[in-house]
Design brief:
alpha+beta; about 20% strand; 4-stranded antiparallel sheet; about 600 residues
């Protein structure tokens, strides 16, 4: 069964059970400052799980694009992926454990679906703990479907519990389904959840029964929900009897293209295989991030930094394979062709994808050559160190002088059986930031030349501009810097292309509407975490203390900020954009003035 067949069968099965296909949401979550990317199929549905009504009803299904960044450093083995698709179905206060488990069993074993022999299935359920009972109901349901007791395993919270990403939120026990691969057990204690390879998880049904409180207690939800997840790539590999996702039709065309470019062969040398997998995975992830409907360019912050890191790591491993020059657009084209029928946004954004990848490659190749050469010069002395530790001072020199990322320094060190004193690096980096903020006549505090009445008005206008840009251009807009005097303002922000005359006019109109409305500007002092929870934009969180000032311009704008603001917007003047131009790759610059009315 191919990935396309699995995706189609899954969606059609749940549609036959009354579910509505809601299709996948953006990889870049809206209105969620806690994560950079959509990390799971249920992520976009959290508001509906905790009570909002979904416009498509109470039974939903889809295939969701996901990015997980925590494992980037281990991608290169035979199993980890940065980008993956998650098949899921949801019940929002509709059916619960009985139907969810029956649906799972039918899809797994039905001859019209996956056709897996019930004899190969084992399941796990929650073992319970103080205050939360054991999930006997799920165990009894599995037994009623024919799964014998000896293949139903009660496991603790670490295995069979889904909790909220933050301190509070919906949570509950889950039941997980495993396939017995036929391998010999590693020990008498071998069971599903063991990492020896005998059992491989194929599906996970989460039962949202509780709401975790701030004090750590759990309160039963009035409306219970079901959230399930089946990893597309891993399931396809299992169904095809492959040892790795990289041996399926999802990755083989990518591997073939890198083999052709490098002259290296997959499957002959593990170090070569590692680099091939990294190039394939990272180029695929970068293509989906850039091709997303809310796609962003590479940058030095947030999701843009993750994207930059993926592209640059792929470039370095391409060079390890012997590929010189710009090459990542080739695997990117393959990804676009592979997935365009499912994710048409890839074709719509093809030019942006290829241009951004090529620009980032060219930029990094220069950085890489210089940084690796310097590391090689340092290496003989580093290897003489009996502790095999590279000082943070040297690692920072590579970063500060050559723009060489600390992650790649750590990777080069690992390849030579060395480690990096990261604590020392972080300390040097922090001092560098403080000096950068304080030094230079034109490095204004908070971007301001002074705190005069007019400069204060311009500073307040940047808040209005930031919000207006996000309204007109999209939520990918993020401030990259500002420079304000009593005569004008300069504002840098992320955006991939020049603004149109119509967009500039619309932004001006929105800002001037807020000025004309004579809105009051209020201030609150609160902990940074509380400010973020209240929806305040905190663009440069590392600059702030634990308690911060939060400025609200009516209900229009709320930002964490340390600078001065007007008390009301009415006397600021008429906002006029004088110039909109490129500042750097993926960053635009607006110059504006406030004219007297």
């Amino acid at each position: 069964m191919t990935s396309e067949e699995l995706r189609r069968k899954y969606i059609s099965f749940f549609e036959s059970k009354g579910h509505v296909n809601i299709f996948g949401k953006s990889l870049l979550p809206e209105n969620d400052p806690t994560v950079l990317f959509t990390t799971a199929g249920m992520h976009p549905l959290v508001p509906y799980i905790i009570g909002e009504e979904h416009p498509s009803g109470t039974r939903l299904t889809n295939s969701q694009k996901c990015i997980r960044t925590g494992d980037i450093d281990v991608v290169g083995d035979s199993s980890h992926l940065t980008f993956f698709e998650m098949l899921g179905n949801w019940s929002l206060g509709d059916y619960f454990k009985e139907d969810a488990i029956k649906f799972s069993y039918e899809f797994l074993t039905g001859t019209d679906y996956l056709g897996i022999s019930p004899d190969l299935l084992s399941v796990t359920v929650f073992a319970g703990e103080e205050g939360i009972p054991r999930d006997d109901e799920s165990a009894q349901l599995w037994e009623s479907l024919g799964i014998p007791k000896e293949r139903i395993h009660f496991l603790p919270r670490s295995d069979n519990w889904w909790g909220p990403a933050g301190e509070t939120g919906p949570c509950g026990p889950d039941t997980e389904m495993f396939i017995d691969t036929g391998k010999n057990a590693c020990s008498t204690d071998c069971r599903p959840g063991c990492h020896c390879g005998k059992y491989i998880e194929i599906w996970n049904d989460v039962f949202m029964q509780y709401n975790k409180q701030k004090d750590g207690t759990f309160v039963k939800l009035e409306r219970t929900c079901v959230d399930t997840g089946m990893g597309l790539e891993r399931t396809v590999a299992m169904l095809q009897g492959k040892k790795s996702v990289y041996e399926t039709e999802i990755f083989l065309p990518l591997i073939a293209s890198i083999e052709k470019l490098s002259g290296k062969k997959f499957g002959e040398d593990e170090s070569i295989d590692t680099s091939l997998r990294i190039v394939c995975d990272h180029s695929r992830a970068a293509t989906f991030i850039l091709g997303d409907e809310r796609g962003i360019p590479p940058s030095n912050v947030g999701a843009g930094y993750v994207l930059r890191r993926l592209i640059r790591r792929a470039v370095r491993h391409g060079r390890k394979l012997g590929i010189d020059g710009v090459f990542l657009s080739e695997p990117a084209k393959i990804v676009i062709d592979q997935f365009v029928s499912v994710y048409p946004e890839l074709l719509e954004n093809k030019e942006f994808i290829l241009n951004e990848i090529q620009a980032e490659e060219r930029k990094f190749l220069e950085t890489l050559k210089k940084g690796e050469l310097e590391f090689e010069k340092m290496l003989p002395n580093l290897l003489k160190n009996p502790q095999k530790i590279m000082s943070g001072r040297l690692a920072f020199k590579l970063y500060d002088t050559y723009g060489f990322p600390i992650e790649l320094t750590e990777e080069l060190a690992r390849e030579n059986a060395l480690s990096v004193n990261r604590e020392e690096f972080d300390e040097a980096f922090k001092k560098h930031q403080e000096l950068s903020r304080a030094g230079g006549d034109q490095v204004f505090k908070g971007g301001l030349a002074d705190h005069s009445e007019k400069t204060t008005a311009y500073h307040t206008a940047t808040h209005l501009l930031q919000k207006a840009l996000s309204i007109v251009l999209g939520d990918h807009i993020s401030q990259k810097g500002s420079n304000i005097t009593s005569e004008r303002m300069r504002f840098d922000f992320t955006h991939p292309q020049p603004m149109t005359k119509e967009e500039i006019g619309e932004v001006e109109q929105i800002v001037n509407q807020q000025i004309a409305a004579d809105i009051s500007v209020t201030i609150e002092i609160m902990p940074l975490d509380e400010a973020k929870k209240a929806g305040a934009v905190a663009l440069f969180a590392d600059k702030y203390e634990q308690k911060v000032k939060v400025y609200s311009i009516g209900s229009f704008s709320k930002e964490v900020c340390g600078g001065p603001h007007v008390e009301r917007t009415g006397n600021m003047g008429l906002f006029k954009i004088k110039k909109e131009q490129s500042s750097s790759a993926g960053v635009r610059r607006i110059r504006a003035i406030l004219e007297n009315k």
